[in-house]
Structures are given as C-alpha cells and as structure tokens.
Amino acid sequence: MLNETDLHAILADPVRRSVLEHLATAPGASASDLAEPFDISKPALSRHLKILEDSGLVERQVDRQFRRFSLSSAAQELDWLKALRIQVTAPMSHLDQLEAESIHIMREVVAEMANPVMMYSIGKDSSVMLHLALKAFYPSKLPFPLLHIDTRWKFREMIEFRDATAKRFDLDLRVFTSSEGLEQQINPFDHGAHYTDVMKTAALKQALDHYGFDVAFGGARRDEEKSRAKERVLSFRSKGHVWNPKGQRPEIWNVFNTRVNKGETIRAFPLSNWTELDIWQYIVRENIPIVPLYYAAERPVVERDGSLIMVDDERLPLAAGESPQQRWVRFRTLGCYPLTGAMESRADSLDAIVREMQIARTSERQGRLIDKDQNASMEQKKLEGYF
Amino acid sequence: MTDISADRTVLSGEEAQAPLFVDAPNGLLRFITCGSVDDGKSTLIGRLLYDSKLLLDDQVSALESASRRFGTTGEGNLDFALLVDGLQAEVEQGITIDVAYRFFATDKRKFIVADTPGHEQYTRNMVTGASTADLAVLLVDARQGVVTQTRRHAYIAALLGVKTVVMAVNKMDLVDYDELRFRQIRADFAALTSMLGLAASEAIPVSALVGDNISSASDNMRWYEGPSLLEFLENVPQNHSDFSQQPLRFPVQWVNRPHLDFRGFSGTVTAGQVAVGDPVVVLPSAKQSQVKQIVTFDGDLPKARAGQAITLVLEDEIDISRGDLICSLKQRAEVADQFQADLVWMDEKPLLPGRSYLLKLGSKTVAASITSIKHKVNVNTFEHTAAKTLALNEIAEVNLSLEKEVAFDPYEELRETGGFILIDRMTNATVGAGMLKFALRRSQNLHRQALNIEKQQRAQQKGQEARVLWFTGLSGSGKSTVANLVEQRLFAAGKHCMILDGDNVRHGLNRDLGFTDADRVENIRRIGEVAKLMVEAGLIVIVSFISPFRSERRMARELLQDGEFVEVFVDTPLEICEQRDVKGLYAKARSGQIKNFTGIDSPYEPPEAAELHLQAGDASAEELAQQVIAYLERSDQA
Description:
The complex is a heterodimer of chains A (387) and B (638).
Chain A: H1 4-11, H2 14-25, E1 29-30, H3 31-35, H4 42-54, E2 58-63, E3 66-71, H5 73-76, H6 79-89, H7 94-112, E4 116-119, H8 124-137, E5 146-149, H9 156-168, E6 173-176, H10 179-183, H11 188-191, H12 193-211, E7 215-217, E8 234-237, E9 265-268, H13 276-286, E10 297-304, E11 307-310, E12 325-330, E13 341-344, H14 350-358, H15 377-384
Parallel strand pairs in A: 4-5, 4-7, 5-6, 7-9
Antiparallel strand pairs in A: 1-3, 2-3, 8-9, 10-11, 10-12, 11-13, 12-13
Chain B: H1 13-16, E1 28-34, H2 41-51, H3 57-70, H4 81-84, H5 88-93, E2 100-105, E3 110-115, H6 123-131, E4 135-141, H7 148-159, E5 164-170, H8 179-196, E6 201-205, H9 229-235, E7 249-251, E8 254-256, E9 264-268, E10 273-275, E11 279-283, E12 287-295, E13 303-305, E14 309-314, E15 325-328, E16 334-345, E17 357-361, E18 364-377, E19 384-385, E20 395-408, E21 419-423, E22 430-439, H10 455-461, E23 467-472, H11 479-492, E24 497-501, H12 502-507, H13 517-536, E25 540-544, H14 550-559, E26 565-571, H15 574-580, H16 585-590, E27 612-615, H17 621-637
Helix pairs in contact in B: 11-17, 13-14
C-alpha cells in the first residue's frame, strides 16, 4: 500500500482527484466518460489513469472491447471518497422526500393552471405550506396570492401573525369574510353548525368565485381524518365546488391531471403525505415561525364539556358563576377560538412540543369541536365544498 | 383475539427522552396491499398501525365504538377494517372502494401504505396504488391459497413495475398453523412470480387478526424461520434505490424567470445526478449546453441527485420550455412520436382507436391517438385476445401515435419518463394509464418528402383559398342537398372544388367499416386525411358527413392549418329529419332493423363553436347555400 507521501503526490493533481471523485459515484466509467469534463488529450488522460492504476487506487476491467474503471477497495476506504459515495447513494431522508414531493406538486399546478391561490389558515400546516412554496419558486416571488377566510372569531394572535407574515414576505394577502354572515351576526354560540356553513364553507366558495380562482392549495393531510385518507392530491370539484368521492380521477405516478372545464375547480393538497409529526419535525429543522399559541403559556380559560376554551376577548359569553382561570395550556390546532380546545401543557419550546408529540396519545383533531357534530362529518363537509 | 381492553403501551422515561431526530436510517418505503376484504387486508393494515403504536387513544376509542356498531369480528373484538375504510359508503357496505393512504413508522423506516380494493371492478384503483409503490404485499387466505384474484394482483404489480412482491399467507390460525399448507401456497406463488418475471418474492405465514408474524415471530409457527412481515418491510431495499446511478433525467416543470438577468429551469431530478459543469442535452430539440448553477432556496449546490427538487441554470441562452427533458449528453433519452405501450383503460366510456386524446408524460402534454390495439390481456388467465375497443379496467398492448415528438425511456427502465396518462379532451377525465415499451420507428429516421410547390401556390394558381367545408348534421338534415348547391355555385364562379359524400365514400375507400363507434372514428379519420390531401392540392373540399362526435370533428380540424377548416352545422330538428326520412332509415332504426343509428340509439354531439350554424328547419336549401357562399366571400376578403 502507498505511504502518505506517495498518496499526497498522486492526489496533488486536480485531474486525478476528479477522476477518483467521478469513480466514487459512478463506478464502471469508460476512459471517454472520464475524459469528458477535461480539456486534455486522450494520451494525457491515459497517463493519469496509469498512475492511478499503478498506485493501486484504480482497477480496470475489460468488458468486451471497452475498458471500464472502478475504485480499488483501498481507494473506497479514503474518507473523502467514502463521504461522497454516501452522499449520493444513501436514501434521502423522509423529510427531504416529502419536501421534494410537495414542491413538485406546487410547481405542476402553477405551471398548468390559470389562476391559483393558496389557502392560508395561519396554522402550522399553512406555515409549512407557505415555506415550501417560497422554496418551490425561489428566486421568483410567490406566483399566487394567499387567501384567508376570516370568520372574525380567530384568535387575536393569529391575525397579528398573519399580517406580520404577509409583510415579512411581501405577500399578496386577500382576506375574505362573508358579508351575509356579518349582517346577520352569525356567531358560533347561537348558530352552531350553521355558523360553520355560512362563515367557512359558504364564505370559501364565495371567495373562490369572487376572485375566479381555478385552483386552491390547501394544507390538509391524509393522516388527519379518514375521508381525507381517500382523497387525491388534486381533488377535482365540479361546478359549485362539489366533491364526488366515488368519481375521483385516478392519480397515477406523479403525473397530475389539472385540466378543468369552465366553472370547475381543483383543490390541491401538497401536504397530503405528511403526518403531524413530520410537520413538527420540519418546523424544527427549517426553523419556521409559527403562531405563539402553539407554545404553552399561562392563558385565561374556561372548561366546557371537557374542553378548555380560551377567553380571547370579551365576546365569549360566560355562564353564571363561570370565571376564567389562568392555566398552562397550548393549542395543537388553531381555528375559531370559541371552537378550539386547548390542552394542558408546559411545552414552551419547539423541542418540548416535538417531544410531547412523540408521546401523544390523542390525535390533533380531538381539539376541534366541529368534527364531532355527526358521524363522518368531515366527509359531509367536504361533499359540500369545505376543504 | 384482540381484546378492546388490550394493554396500551406505557411509555418509559427512556422513550420520553428520545432524541428529536432519529432520521429513519432506511428512509421512506411506499407499499401497496392487495387482496379482498375476505383475505383480511384492512385487518392487516389496522394491525400494523396498532402494533407500531400509531393508534392514538381517541382513535382507539372511536374504533371501539365503531366496532360495536358496524364490527364483523365478534363481540368485544376490535374490527381493524373500520380503521381504514374511510368513506361512509364503505363502512356501511363493508367494502373498500377507493385507495386509502395510511402512514406508520418504526425506528428503521417510515411507511406510506396504499390500501387498494381487490375486486376486478376496481382494477384502476389498484393501478393507482401500485404506480407509486416500491413493493406490494399480496394477501391470500390460507384456506384458499393462490386464487384467480391473486394472479390478477401479481400481474398488475408486475405490469406497473413493482419489482418486489411479498405474499402474506393470512388466517394461518384457521388452518391450525399447518406448515405443509403454507409450503404448497408458497410453491404456487413462486411459480406465479417467476412466470411474471418478478425478481424477489417472499412468502410469510401470518394471522393479522391474532398478530402472528406481523411485527414479531410467532410462537404458533416455530417451523417458520424467516422474518416477520414488519421486519421484512423494514429492511427490503427501495425499488428505486439505485436511481442515482442512472443517467441524468430532468423534466423541466416551470421556467423560473424572476427578472431579466435570471432564467432557470425548475423541476425534480428523476434519475441520475447532475453537477455544475456537466454537459447536458435538451430533448427533443437536441440543443446542448453545460450546467452553470444548481439553485435552491437553501443556497446553490455543487451536485444534485435523483429525488431532489432544484432549479438549473445553463451556460447558454437556448430555447427551453416546460415539457422539455434535460439529459446527460452521453446517455440521452430516445425521441419518438410512435410507440408500442401497455395501456390500462380507466373510463366508463370505451377507448376508441383513432380518437384524439391528450397524453401527459412527465410535464409534457401532447395530442395522441391509439392507432391499433394489438391484443388485450385477460387479467385472470393472461390470455391474449383480439379487440377493437377497450372497456373500463381492460388492459391491452397498443400502438400509439403522437402529434409531436417526445423524449422518453422505456417504462421498464424508468417509471418517470416512461409512464403516461391519457385525458379525454371533452370531459377532461383521466381515462387511461400507459407504460411505454419502445418506439415503433425512430423519428430521426423519418423524413417527410419536402414539397417543391407549396399549397398556397397551388391555390393561387386556381384563384382561391384552399379550404374544407365540413357539413355536419343528422341524417336527413339536408346536408348533402345544401352541399351540392354550394358546389354548383362555386363551380359556376370558376372555383375548383370537390365533394366528398358520406355514402359515396362508404362504398369505396371505407367499405370495410361498419357503424360501431370505433368504425365511425376510423371513417372520419380517413375522410379527414383525404380532405387534407385535397387541400394541399389547392382545392375547396366539401365534406358532407353526419360526423356525430365532437372529438372526431376536432381531429379533422387539427389535421389542417388555422382557418382552413370551416365547420358548417346543418341544424335541423330530429322530428323534421325523421318526418322527411328520405332513405327510409329512421323507420328501420325505430323498428330495430338498423343498430347504432345517429339520433335514435347513437348520440349526436352538436358543435359548440361551428364557423357557420345553419338554422335549417324552415329555410330553403337555396337560402342556406347562399349563407355558405356569403361566409366564404367575407372570409376571403378578411
């Protein structure tokens, strides 16, 4: 085997280093493959190859009339070549794979559809989706606006975060509220399911029609709920935004059919294959800002039917004898504050949240009161055009 | 049997302190499960989720209450199938209709499971699930062994390029864990996989309901020495783990142009690697350049590999658009416009050879038609039979003709550059999934004979604009009468014209064709081609055909240049046509003597934007002919 000095002498030459690097990731290359990147004559390259062969770093096989070169086992052990090989051949991490898949979906939709919009609900999934979109189109600016359906019952901190985010990334943010709902003073206390219909489902459809968006990105994930597990990445909606679960377009490979006739639309879900834990791990890895309500803090809450409801403003009617208590809580999911249950927690950092997640024994939608209305209620809402 | 009150794992202090990122060392594995409800497929997936501790308390309590309401596994037992059947109709009917995606993880690997229904009527759903899978888990009932359905599932997995198929021989508890029974099934399975050319195949005896050999070795089957199902899934290599070793393929998805000084090409590397300085070729244009920069949001990269979503900047200002394929210079993809392919039909309406569909391959979309069905494959017996059309869920080997050249690799070598979908041009539905096998003739070798005298010169010589006047309408609408009058007027004005009449052509060129939908499409295709030749000769061609389908009229239109095709809709109400019944055909159709008669038992699709719409109910043929002449004079001046 070579001594250090000989090795240094051999590796001092940039052509020889580059040949070794090439062979580390593409074993079995021919002399002409190796010559390609260099502006040198064939005899010159042959001389370099001979030096590498003589030193025992490179081996040659003859395959019919072709000479093919590979690294010797000794060369494969060199740290720098080993690292290079692992970098190329190790499986991509699952977060990298999920990220690339989401970016692919977003680019495909934007390239093919006329008037896209991204639904922005201010929650953690929206934050991740926005972050992925910034990556997908970099260095271009986001090629679509963001749409927030504001029921006027969101947490105050959500609205502050929304406006700060729009400013920070110079986003085209459209905020839409059902004017009919405002006039009739529809609220979550007196109107129950009707509130969700008017302020969310109907408002979303009105907003999409108002702006003429033909596709809306949403942050829904398949692990959230059973009917979502059966939904396509691109969910086709006929006129009136109706979902037909039995007539979904087959979705084969990553070849997406984005074609719609006039009046038909698509909901695109680039986070379909992410799980809740993936979302949190990605937030940590990428250092993505999220609404502070996800972190535990002392907050004023009242306990109702086993749920902790935060008293975010004076509009929350208190029953006789009911008074807000300061408790350490955080939110796993964010929505309209009177409909969003908090969980007791001391997790006040991302690390602590992810640890809590890893040992969690309940699913995140448990905090959402609207899903419990009826059996299969999410499927019903989706049929009607809710995300 | 699993009791509802089964012990839920209590986390030890050690687990609570687990590091934040143990990136699963074996990455992400996507697999598909095939088998019917009776084989216990949903139970198997539910069991995997349950055993890998991925079911959360509220999900378990929801499952408990659902098991009580809809469960089929007996009092006090969890019915795992209810976990995976998501749609209300599925839960109520106890069947799986559509693909469901499930997620679970172990310390070694993350998994995405596509749970697909087993019946033949859901073949398209299984194809959907298999298309992205690294591996297939084939379930059989130990009491039944390899059955017709098993053969179909293995065939589809092989067709879609899922190389590794593992058989879970389920319900071993119901055959008393009999080793001999398992060996018989394993031998049948080995024969099947070798016939289909599937590489690795493993058979594992399990009981999903009880939990034998799912996540750990079973005490009930000490004679079995192989891995448990989960162990196998954790360690099997990914289908495409060697992607990075293949030649570079980079389909351009989106031209990234934030300002005048930056022009990048965004996309995902589907195969191989790319480094700054690499020479590349852009297909189909075959222009060459070098990689100048690999741009990402997180900074420029020296090198990228299969799976990464990046933006490439090239050294030279060459024309590149969405749909182009950037390849390694040395090992480039092939370019062609005629192919042989395997095709799975996924639409309720049958495939019609000759009809124009949209074909999407990677990020490229082009018009395409099936020129012939070589044979269809019986998915149960693998027999080949002749076919003129394909119905829902049928699979065939076909020849395809594309309107433009595309770059591709055989599907067997690379899914991403060899798999395509077909889209119906009217409904926009995804109607087919295809796998390219090889080019029928390389386009490089195909040169059209260059013509010395141009079409315009021929038309000018005759003092006219060459055109096709395409008369469409019901039988008896008066098409031919009006067409004849138009021809006489044009002839009188010194124009050179030629009439192609439906009935006459059917006596000659098209006498081999009948009146099925497939034959009607071919009929129109031939007429279109003949009309095109005549237009090239500088003639005004008058075509008078019922031509009931929009897509075929569009196909004829697309053979010609803009402005050359004038669609004339002779719009006479059906009642009037039937009253006239010049040839006595309506009477015969009504009495059932003629089948597939347009307007009676075969549809007529009226044009949506014809150049001329003649309201033919009341007007005389002379008036209508005059409208056509007036239109021609107007557009000649324009």
